[in-house]
Amino acid sequence: GGIGMALLAVLHADFRPGIDLVIEQSGLDAAVQWADIVFTGEGSIDAQTMFGKTPVGVASVAKRHGKPVIAIAGRVGDGIECLHGRGIDAVFGAAPSAASLDELLRDARANVARTAEQVTRLMRIVRSH
Question: Could you give the CA distance from residue 70 to residue 80 in angstroms, rounded to a whole number?
Answer without folding.
Answer: 12
